[in-house]
Write a structure and sequence with these properties.
- The complex is a heterodimer of chains A (about 325) and B (about 350).
- By secondary structure, chain A is of the alpha/beta class.
- Helix content of chain A is about 35%, strand content about 15%.
- Chain A has two domains: about 130 residues, 3-Layer(aba) Sandwich (Rossmann fold), CATH 3.40.50; about 180 residues, Rossmann fold, CATH 3.40.50.
- Chain A is built from twelve helices and twelve strands.
- The longest helix of chain A has 19 residues.
- In chain B, helix 2 packs parallel to helix 12 and helix 6 packs across helix 8.
- Chain B contains twelve helices and twelve strands.
- Classes of the chains: A alpha/beta (about 325), B alpha/beta (about 350).
- Chains A and B meet through helix 5, helix 6, helix 8 and helix 12 of A and helix 6, helix 7, helix 8 and helix 12 of B.
């Protein structure tokens, strides 16, 4: 394959900015910073169907910025014969056909550690909320019920709880570190045992659930981890068990989760993600032992700034032939 | 069944593993001295406590009489009432103590003693106990949970989802990051220190105000609450309520904390000038607030109900099955110690 120069010189002698295919949406905050340095191909702005547009304009594209959850599937990849890099704007890359990229030698970068703190904070807050009934009792107060019905039902202590972390990467580790300060005991499941970690390791998620009071899912979504929390795991977790999901909706078998909550087979859940966003199972909307948020865990200015730096860093490194800062290795 | 995991208790849904079992156990038979102890319980905050008191002692329930008839009720039973168990709602003020000439001990089911007239107790040589330590963790956990909930707008998000309004996948707004923000703590006692320890795991720098600087901490000390507020992002009230600390968070402090600052009150309602707080929040001079306590519980200013930058909870700081049982056991243990002439477990006076 010949090395093509995609920075054609204009008559004025200035170099053209490197070309990047963009999959929407591009966060407004990013637009100014990135359009200073890169030229974006925006298929959705064209009246042509996507395949035609790409055939006409994208055959030379070497980099793709996937700025949201739009899938980067084999079909799309087939339209991009020169593609060498996919830059994701999330920590998870489940929306990208990683196997197809690997086959073609296409590198993938993700958000690195840009979101770690905020997602970990959110997971901890969801857990405290479920146990102490913060959102539920806030609703109670705002409905004027405190003077009428008296004290709200009691919650449950966080201290002493055994928390099973599923996926002890940077986010899982950050969650573990925080919860230890509250007197929780950390247990974990990971693809492989981590020799530098002193927490008890479980190679089997059901066994982890059997020894835990709480399960927190902080792993990436892959074919292997799809529905990693299934009915068997929920039953092992038990009637007082709490599930906190800040990963991807499909890590949990949502139908089973609803059934287990309705039947009292588990005690509660804090969910920032769902299998079919923005659809949330109706039954959950009436439960007081769940806390439901609309995929908000990463949305702080700091995470976004961090993400912009990572995205920019990866694109700049790529176009200057330097090592990528946050490559995803499978 | 797995013995090491949560067992379903009759009373609640929790098995709280307690590594430090208290001397009192609800399984033992009460000594005769307890059976003849007349105990006035002021408020029905703790059903387990009420049950145990009625099984073990001669229990008088103050709330079964309307307040306007309390004097009469107390006069009628004054000869029998030797112990009073108070709560954060109804304690033992001078008038009540005067009405109980046989009173020997006030065992408060709380750590705060703002509702107990300590001077009067001292004068009458009445013993006073409270419930320190057993509630420290829960209150500290709640303080952090409330702070993050406010900064990250978690309750608001939950309301949004429940309203059915979430219909676009990319719907988001930026909220304030919690990790790394400076926490200012008013009062570095047991609860204040526990809050600091938790916040440190989020890389939050800690500063504090106290009557005097504490020698064994690395936290930054401010001798003025206004200075503390001006130099922190999240201000948490964790001191005792006394004459000096009433309205310790006033307009000046709130203005210093500012439009990006968040106030968390897990102390007592009167720590904060509530009327000023409401206007500061409505006018945007204060960024947000998480309140577990209010000046006139259970009444909460309705102007707060429509605000998205507040979290309002009904005095739930100690409201977990495990902690309420431990508090009650401590009260019962103190009463038993008193009745059997043994050293009190957690005396204040």
């Amino acid at each position: 394959m010949s090395v093509e120069n995609h920075t054609a010189e204009t008559p004025a002698g200035e170099r053209e900015l490197p070309l990047v295919l963009l999959l929407p949406p591009l966060f407004p905050h990013f637009h100014v910073a990135l359009t200073h340095k890169f030229r974006f191909l925006k298929p959705w702005e064209s009246p042509l169907p996507r395949e035609e547009f790409l055939a006409a304009h994208a055959c030379a594209v070497r980099a793709l910025l996937c700025s949201g959850p739009t899938p980067v599937d084999a079909e799309l990849l087939a339209c991009l014969p020169r593609l060498e890099l996919v830059v994701a704007s999330s920590a998870g890359v489940n929306h990208i056909d990683v196997a197809a990229c690997r086959r073609r030698g296409i590198a993938i970068t993700n958000a690195g550690n840009a979101f770690t703190d905020d997602v970990a904070d959110y997971a901890v807050a969801l857990l405290i909320d479920v146990l102490h009934k913060i959102s539920a009792s806030d609703r109670y107060v705002r409905r004027g019920l405190w003077p009428i019905k008296g004290d709200h039902p009691l919650g449950r202590k966080l201290g002493g709880k055994r928390v099973g972390v599923i996926g002890l990467g940077s986010i899982g580790s950050a969650v573990a570190r925080r919860l230890e300060a509250f007197g929780c005991t950390i247990l974990y499941h990971s693809r492989r045992k981590k020799p530098s970690v002193s927490h008890q390791f479980f190679s089997n998620v059901t066994d982890l659930a059997a020894e835990s009071d709480v399960l927190v899912t902080t792993c990436t979504l892959t074919a292997e981890t799809h529905h990693i929390i299934d009915r068997e795991v929920m039953l092992a977790l038990g009637k007082d068990g709490i599930i906190i999901n800040v990963g991807r909706g499909a890590l949990v078998d949502e139908k089973e989760l609803v059934r287990c909550l309705m039947e009292g087979e588990i005690g509660g859940a804090g969910l920032d993600v769902f299998e079919n966003e923005p659809v949330v199972p109706q039954e959950l909307l009436h439960m007081d032992n769940v806390v439901l948020t609309h995929h908000q865990a990463v949305f702080t200015p700091e995470s976004f700034h961090g993400l912009l730096e990572v995205v920019m860093g990866n694109l700049e490194a790529f176009f200057s032939n330097r090592p990528l800062p946050t490559p995803v290795s499978e | 069944m797995k013995p090491t995991k949560c067992r379903v208790e009759e009373r609640g849904t929790e098995d709280d593993r307690n590594p430090n079992p208290k001397p009192f156990s609800s399984l033992t038979t009460p000594p005769p001295a307890m059976e003849s102890l007349g105990v006035l319980l002021t408020f029905p905050a703790n059903s387990y406590l009420e049950e145990e008191l009625s099984k073990r002692c001669k229990l008088f329930r103050l709330w079964e009489t309307p307040p306007e008839n309390w004097r009469q009720f107390l006069r009628a039973n004054a000869g029998s009432i030797r112990a009073l168990v108070g709560t954060s709602t109804v304690g033992a003020d001078a008038e009540m103590i005067d009405a109980l000439p046989a009173l020997e001990i006030v065992a408060s089911c709380s750590v705060g003693l703002d509702k107990v007239d300590l001077a009067k107790c001292r004068e009458r040589r009445i013993r006073v106990t409270n419930t320190p330590d057993v509630l420290t963790d829960d209150v500290a956990d709640l303080a952090i949970g409330l702070a993050i909930a406010t900064m990250r707008r978690i309750c608001e998000a939950d309301r949004y989802v429940r309203s059915g309004a979430w219909n676009a996948k990319g719907d988001y707004k930026l909220t304030s990051k919690f990790s790394g923000k400076t926490i200012g703590i008013i009062g570095l006692g047991r609860i204040g220190l526990a809050i600091a320890k938790r916040a440190e795991a989020f890389d939050c720098p800690i500063s504090y105000y106290s009557r005097s600087e504490k020698p064994h901490t690395n936290y930054k000390y401010y001798s003025s609450v206004v200075d503390l507020a001006a130099n922190c992002h999240i201000l948490i009230v964790a001191c005792a309520l006394t004459e000096e600390t009433r309205h310790i968070v006033n307009r000046e402090v709130m203005d210093a904390l500012g439009p990006k600052g968040v106030l968390v009150n897990i102390g007592r309602g009167p720590h904060v000038d509530e009327a000023e707080l409401v206007s500061a929040l409505i006018e945007g001079r204060l960024g947000g607030a998480a309140l577990d306590v209010f000046e006139h519980e259970p009444h909460v200013p309705e102007q707060l109900f429509g605000l998205e930058n507040v979290v309002l909870v009904p005095h739930v700081g100690t409201a977990t099955w495990g902690t309420r049982k431990e508090m009650a056991d401590l009260v019962l243990g103190n009463l038993e110690a008193h009745a059997t002439n043994k050293p009190l477990l957690t005396p204040v006076l």
